[in-house]
TrEMBL record:
Any GO MF annotation of the entry: glycosyltransferase activity
Keywords for this protein: Transferase
Alphabetical list of InterPro entries matching this protein: Glyco_trans_1 (IPR001296)
GO biological process: lipopolysaccharide biosynthetic process
PANTHER family assigned to the protein according to its UniProt record, in alphabetical order: GLYCOSYLTRANSFERASE WBBK-RELATED
Name of the protein described by the UniProt record: Glycosyltransferase family 4 protein
Domain Glycosyl transferase family stretches: 169-308
Record-linked CDD domains: GT4_PimA-like
A Pfam family recorded for this sequence: Glycos_transf_1
Keyword Transferase: yes
Gene3D superfamilies: Glycogen Phosphorylase B
Coiled-coil ranges (or none): none
Length: 348
């Protein structure tokens, strides 16, 4: 089986996605399959490409380039991840012109594009087969059930064990609540700020928001909520590949998201012993974590109550171990790799 993976993933750090896709490619190669990659042009200088140096990698997605790659290398399956509409459209056209099967991986829930332009976009994302990153994502896809499968996302835990920076990632000012906020409304930055506003200074909380992009957008949102200022109990830090540095310095990890496909971060944070708080949405696997504070999505008062509870009831070492063991048992990367290969072999 020969697979071409097409992606617009262009984050400055590889994160769990690149580690996972490399683990998949490595296992497929060991089993006699062939894997190559096609990325957007802006990916050419990104440091995580070194992880894929053993594979054929092309850049600058174009219709002719895709057709040539599919034909010259006798590709059986084209597998798309994190593709923008233009790339997805070009990829589907190339598949139709060359008779290749297109498999779309859904990392988040389906959103139908509106208007006349949306007709073309929706057609582009209607692949031959679909793989959801979780059962809930798969169940909500509006395609024929026989074309939809799923494999729950997993974590490459070895990435979290690598030595990082021993220097503090931020000046600690109290009980640190860490969250990711590059997409501030979807990630619930506004909810976290509103929950902490009345209690942060009095109770000694510090909100640390890690951002891979949209810093200006996040700052504007905070100022809108906080009388035109960014309070001294809020700290913005840039995203980093060694994310374990952040988890180790945090006291509480907060996932306040309104929507997720299957969220990595609470699993990573729980693996490293953070106290955990999550919104009760299908895309966050809080039910798989024995000790995790939960609040109803968008319920600011309930989130505040859980924050205050966790401040005075931190996890014991035994509870941290129980969380870690449960997370590893269900979300270990080798399980995902086996499921993915089985699905792709079935579709080829």
């Amino acid at each position: 089986m020969k697979v071409l993976i097409v992606s617009d993933y262009a984050a400055p750090y590889g994160g769990n996605f690149i580690c996972s896709i490399k683990a998949l490619a490595d296992a497929m190669t060991q089993q006699g399959h062939s894997v190559q990659f096609y990325f957007a042009g802006q990916c050419q200088s990104l440091p995580w490409l070194s992880l894929l140096e053993r594979y054929k990698v092309q850049f600058g997605v174009s219709l002719n380039g895709l057709r040539t790659a599919m034909g010259k290398d006798n590709i059986d399956l084209v597998y798309t991840h994190f593709c923008l509409p233009k790339t997805q459209l070009l990829t589907k056209l190339a598949c139709r012109l060359t008779g290749r099967k297109l498999v779309q991986h859904w990392h988040n829930h389906y959103q139908k594009a509106p208007g006349a332009k949306g007709i073309l976009i929706n057609w582009a994302f209607a692949a031959d087969y679909h793989i959801g990153c979780s059962k809930h994502v798969a169940d909500t896809l509006p395609f024929a059930k026989k074309t939809v499968l799923y494999a729950d996302n997993a974590i490459d835990f070895s990435r979290l064990e690598q030595p990082g920076d021993s220097a503090p990632a931020w000046d600690k000012k109290g009980i640190t609540v860490l969250m990711f906020g590059f997409d501030p409304i979807r990630k619930g930055v506004d909810l976290a700020v509103q929950a902490l506003m009345p209690i942060a200074q009095q109770k000694g909380f510090q909100l640390v928001i890690s951002l891979s992009k949209n810093k200006d957008k996040v700052e504007a949102l905070i100022r809108q909520l906080c009388d035109g200022e960014i309070p001294n109990w809020i700290t913005l830090v840039p995203a980093r590949d060694q994310v374990a540095d952040y988890y180790r310095q945090a006291d509480i990890f907060l996932s306040a998201a309104r929507e997720e496909g299957l969220c990595y971060s609470p699993l990573e944070a729980g693996y490293l012993g953070c106290n955990l708080i999550s919104s009760a949405i299908p895309g966050v696997p809080y039910e798989s974590i024995p000790h995790c504070g939960v609040f109803a999505s968008e319920n600011v008062e309930q989130l505040r109550e859980v924050l205050l509870w966790q401040k005075t009831h931190p996890l014991s070492e035994q509870e941290k171990l129980e969380n870690r063991n449960a997370i590893v048992e269900k979300f270990e990367i080798n399980r995902w790799v086996k499921e993915e290969i089985s699905i792709l072999e079935q579709l080829a």
